[in-house]
Write a structure and sequence with these properties.
This protein has 344 residues and is an all-alpha fold. The protein has one domain. Helices cover 82% and strands 0% of the residues.
């Protein structure tokens, strides 16, 4: 597993290789953060700190750990042939790199570490990643539908967007299933359409095609078996995510119901899928949070202050989670030493 020094080197290399698009994403994040800060009433931060619930804050820390454990189990149950603790190490690093650099770097680290440390083929790890995202999207879509029905009268500005999002997700999931059923024929058809539209020259589209092709080459029975596992584990993981997100309501004592919180969380989850984020959605997620809570009656000044607090908590918990790596390394070293002494 990488050391802290190796992680630092990875960050430096990533920054050196910044493309124009990555620079744009960083500038966008900075611009949006500045916008949120300008909307913040700093007197509100002092008031919020006085009504902060330490009990709910403890629950948030606990569920943060639970989410990492569940995500690791999700990958572990789908990859097969690897030890859980090894997958947990990879997920901890992936989580840190995604939140301190970018999502794309996190995904790349996940696939690279599994290949280097566990000899898991890139096609296998990539295929597992797609299965996980399928299950996550399906669960998010279900939560979005049910929560939107409950809060429908409160989300008038977002009603049309909500319908489009549900239809878009269902269409994407449908394409995934059609790829499994029609296999190579469907992939070739999609490839011809993209070539005709001249979209195949974009790297994102090319990577998408590669994933579809690897998906079409897999055994159907294996895929459907993995899909059942992926959907079940995603349902558990996303349900825990909804609880984790609701802790913000408890921490700051906000007058928001559970279904309103779930609706907001599903939209924030969907925003996280959009490849415009760096540093754990810095700026993008914060501004989206301010807007969405505003729909349910929380003022911009109050929510801007809360979003800064949530952002600070987010980075603090991610940094503390990294302590697992050296602690686990010390434990493993001690076990090897004890085993060596016992064998002598």
């Amino acid at each position: 597993m990488p050391t802290f020094k190796e992680l630092q080197i990875l960050m430096i290399e990533k920054l050196r290789k910044l493309s124009l698009w990555n620079i744009v994403k960083f500038l966008l994040a900075i611009g949006l953060v500045i916008f949120v800060v300008k909307k913040t009433d700093f007197a509100q931060i002092i008031l919020l700190s006085k009504r902060l619930s330490w009990t709910w804050l403890s629950f948030r820390a606990i569920f943060f750990i639970i989410l990492i454990v569940l995500k690791s189990f999700q990958y572990y149950s789908l990859i097969g042939g690897v030890h859980y603790k090894d997958v947990l190490n990879v997920v901890v690093w992936q989580n840190a790199i995604s939140n301190f650099i970018s999502n794309s770097a996190g995904i790349a680290s996940y696939m690279t570490m599994l290949k280097a440390e566990q000899n898991v083929k890139l096609t296998r790890s990539g295929f597992t990643f797609v299965i996980v995202k399928f299950g996550d999207l399906l669960t998010i879509c279900l939560y979005l539908i049910f929560s939107a029905i409950v809060v429908w009268n409160q989300i008038q500005p977002l009603q049309s967007l909500t319908i489009l999002l549900v239809l878009g997700i269902l269409s994407g999931l449908g394409i995934f299933l059609i790829t499994i059923l029609l296999r190579e024929r469907f992939v070739n058809f999609v490839e011809r359409i993209l070539a005709w539209l001249k979209l195949d020259r974009f790297s994102l589209v090319s990577r998408g095609l590669e994933m579809l092709r690897s998906l079409a080459e897999e055994n159907q029975q294996v895929i459907f078996s993995l899909l059942r596992t992926g959907i079940f584990t995603s349902l558990i993981y996303m349900s825990a995510t909804m609880v984790y997100a609701y802790t913000i309501i408890g921490i700051f004592d906000l007058p928001i119901g559970i279904w309103s919180s779930i609706y907001i969380t599903t939209l924030l989850q969907l925003v996280s899928f959009v490849p415009i984020q760096v540093l754990g959605g810095l700026g993008v997620s914060d501004l989206t949070m301010v807007y969405l809570f505003g729909i349910f009656g929380i003022s911009q000044a109050e929510m801007s202050a809360i979003s800064l607090g949530v952002r600070a908590l987010f980075y603090t918990m991610n940094a503390l989670m990294l302590l697992y790596i050296p602690i686990n390394a010390l434990i493993q070293k001690k076990k090897r030493k004890d085993y060596s002494n016992a064998s002598e």
